[in-house]
Amino acid sequence: MKNRSLSYMFFVFISFVFFLACSNENDEQFPEAIEYESVFIGNQEWMLENLDVETYRNGDTIPRLQEGQNWSELTTGAWTLVTYDGFDGLGYGKLYNWYAVNDPRGLAPEGWSIPTMEDWIELSDFLGGETVAGGKLKSTGTIEAGDGLWNQPNSGATNESGFTALPAPLWYKFVIPPGAYAKWWSSNEFDSEFGSNVWVSAGGEFFANGTFRKYSGLSVRCIRETNIE
C-alpha cells in the first residue's frame, strides 16, 4: 500500500512538472497580448504609433538588418532601426521591408492588420482627398522653429485627424534622414519587385501613393482588423 502511494505521488509530481514545461513553452510561442493606443478616424481604427515589434504574430523572431548588410541582398523579412550621431531612432517605430509585411506568420499583432491600399484610400477620402489629407495626418511644428520634428515648411500640418504622422527615416540604397517624409507600406504587391506604399511630405499637405522596391525599409502603421460576416 505504501509503495502504491509513493508511485501515485511520483506520477502527480511528474505530471505537474510536465504541465509547467508545456505552459512555459506556450508562453514563449504566444507572447502576451499588448494593448496599443489607437485613434478612430471615420469608420477605421488606427494604431496611434508606427509599429515597433521584433517578432511575428506567432512569436518567431524577425531578423534585424546587420551592420554592413544591404537591404537589396534580402528576399525575406527584416527590420532595422536607423541611428547616427544625435539621432537614436526611438519613437519613430522600426523600418521593415515588404517581405516582413507580407510574411505568412503575420507582422501585425493580434487583432490588427497591415492596411491595404483600399484602407489607405478610405482614410484619405474621409479627410478630404489626396490634395489635403496629408496635412490632417501630419504632426505639427518644425525642427527649425523648435516645436516639432518636421523640416520646414511642414505645409498644411494640423493633425486634426489625431493620426500624428511623424517624419521617420527610411532605408533604400542609402538612409534618407528623418524630417522630410513619412512613408508606410501597404499589404498590396505592385509587381514582383515592388510593393505599394503611401506617403506624406514636409513640403505639402497632399497624401500620395507610390511604390518602393520590396527590400526597402519603410514604416508600418496598423489598422484594427474587422470581422466580415
Automatic annotation (TrEMBL):
InterPro entries: Fib_succ_major. Residues 39-224 form the Fibrobacter succinogenes major paralogous domain. Residues 1-21 form the signal peptide. Keywords: Signal. The keyword Signal applies. This is Fibrobacter succinogenes major paralogous domain-containing protein.
